[in-house]
Amino acid sequence: MEQKMFAFMEKMYNKMISIEDAVNRNGEAIEKNREAIEKNTQSIINLENKMDKHISALYDGYKQSVEGINRLGNKIDKLTEKVEKQELKVSALQVVK
């Protein structure tokens, strides 16, 4: 009976040691994953900062394009008015002849 109990305790001890080793390995793996997550988080933050700058630049370019188109539209409207006035003057001169 004592031999069975000793064998059982030895088996339990060996099992506990293997569990302890597994827990230690898992702890190391968790620590490595935590470090990798921190690096990834920092990389993501850096990318977000770069994207913010680029998006601002793109928005500024878009805004400038819209303003330029509006200026051209205004110039075209003024030229159209001048052409219409000239056409009216020409029509009036033709009627007078």
Structural description of this entry:
- It is built from one helix and no strands.
- It is mainly α.
Secondary-structure blueprint:
Blueprint: H1 2-96
Keywords:
97 residues, mainly alpha, 1 helix, 98% helix, rod-shaped
Shape: rod-shaped
Share of helical residues = over 70%
Number of strands: 0
- Calculate the terminal CA-CA distance, rounded to whole Å: 138 Å
Percent strand equals under 5%
* Series of H and E elements: H
Poorly predicted spans: none
SSE-based structural type: mainly alpha
Give the integer mean of the pLDDT values: 91
For the biggest sheet, the summary is: none
Helix segment tally: 1
Radius of gyration: 41 Å
Short précis:
With about 100 residues, this protein is mainly alpha-helical. The chain has one helix at about 1-95. It has 1 helix and no strands.
